[in-house]
Specification:
alpha+beta, Alpha-Beta Plaits, 3 domains, Pep_chain_release_fac_I, Prokaryotic-type class I peptide chain release factors domain-containing protein, protein biosynthesis, PCRF
Length: 399
Amino acid sequence: MSAALMRILRRVSPRLQTVRICRSNSHKTEDFLKNEAVERRVRRAMDEQKSITARLERGQMPETDRRALNQTLVEASRVINAFEKTQLALRELAEIQTLICNTSAEDQQMLELLREEHGELSRRVKQLHTELMETLAPAEDLDHRSVVLELASGRTTGGDVCQQFTREIFDMYQGFACYKHWDFELCNYTPADYGGLHHAAVRISGDSVFRWLRFEGGTHRVQRIPEVGLSSRMQRIHTGTATVIVLPQPREVDIHIAAKDLRIDTFRSRGAGGQSVNTTDSAVRVVHLPTGTVAECQQFRSQLKNRDTALRVLRARLYQCIMGQQREQTHSARRQQVGSRCQSDRIRTYNFSQDRVTDHRIGHVTRDIKGFLRGGEDLEDLIRILQEKHDLLKLDDIS
């Protein structure tokens, strides 16, 4: 008898009907465990555990070999333990679901306890699913990096549509950063008319930021009847775009920029007026002469702080360029199936009239567009699906 069922039985004696059995709601995790690549990886871990245990029990070997074998054994055991814990939680969840479906409607106390246990087990299955995926497909080097995220409005006839949408996308990522407890540091922000946004750059730091945002780079398309601006007078659906660029923040050892390769210009901040605007040359533009890459910052009153921020953005852009060249040289099937994440790719459409967000890479549809744009759980769930697709393909390469 499962631990979950024992907890329920200790709290109340149920009156059960044995007429019908309901299926579990955890099909996603069940399908994941039956995935061919997952099964291959788990079988390999079991074979490694059996083989290494036998070798370690046989007798003498050099200490370096023993340490290496022990390390492999630990990794194999982590995979097996995570897999078995997920299986166990799924079985317990199925038992609780069956009890819910077979319990008399009059037994409200029992149903309440069962539903409470079901909710706790569902959250545990979701957590174990994530932990198992991370165990099967270890994190990549860039996954734990901070990022520089840039947004730019599209250039179409309905420019105000693009600019308003770009601000909403900016707010979505700011909301997501708050939801994930990340630091959201503004590097540049160029507002537009009617509360819109031309361009913005932010540095987001925290736990595994690049892993969560790596698939957000690309063209985001909006279809809507504008609420404000010149386009709103026409009262018809307009199409606009916003471009999102996600740059992993390099470490000092990743890229070296020689001082002689930089040209640093200062200019007066541009803005709507007020104190410290157009009064001092505090804004900074940095040009990398060998590549022509440019970064600028006018967000702060301090010229030194603007210079440091512009250099940080420049380093991220140069690093992304280098990484892009390396990815082209090591082109794989995984990139074709998940998406290259090139910034020209149209990755998502936000259709306001149909209250629908569609991710074109995986065909995933989310309703409640305003909830999605708050940058909370809905966005997290979509990104998690993209992560899993990427990790399964990576796992297929590994196994």
